[in-house]
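Subject: sequence -> C-alpha cells, single chain

Hey, anyone have a minute? Need the predicted structure for the following. Not urgent.
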Amino acid sequence: MDIILFGIFLLACCAAGATGAMFPPGSWYRTLEKPPWTPPDWAFPLAWTSIYILISFAGARVAVLDDNAYAMAFWASQAAFATLWTPIFFGLRRMKGALLVMAPLWISVAACTWFNFGLDFWAGLAFLPYLAWVSVAAALNFTVWRLNPGVKPVKPSEI
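Reply:
Had a minute. Here:
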C-alpha cells in the first residue's frame, strides 16, 4: 500500500468529516425523539474515525490497480454524499431531504464495496463496516424523521 495515497484519501475523509464540526448535532438533536436502538453519542466519532481509516486504506489499495475506474468513482461519490448529508440533516434540519441524500450515499457505499471486492479482497472487507454503519444511519434518519413530524427546517439564511 502506498502511504502517500493513504494520506491523500485520509485527508479527503477529514475534509468530508469537517462538516460534522461545522454542523454539530447540538441541543436540537438531543431534543428529538429517537428509537431505543440509537447508538450512544460516543459511538459516532469512534465509528467515523474507524471508517475513515478503513476506507482510506481501501482507496489506497485500489487506486494503484488496473480497472479501478468504477471503484474510484464510487469512492468519490460516497465522499461527496457523506459530505452533503450532515449540513442537510443537522444544519438545515431537513430530515426528509437528508433521506434523499442517504439513498445515493448507501448505493455509492454498496457499489464501492462490490467493486472493491472485485479488485482486492482486503479493500472490499475494509468497506463492510461503512456499509453496516450507513445502513444503520439510513434507518435512524428515517425513524427520526417519522418520530418527529413537527420539526421545522431552518432557512439557509438562518444558519
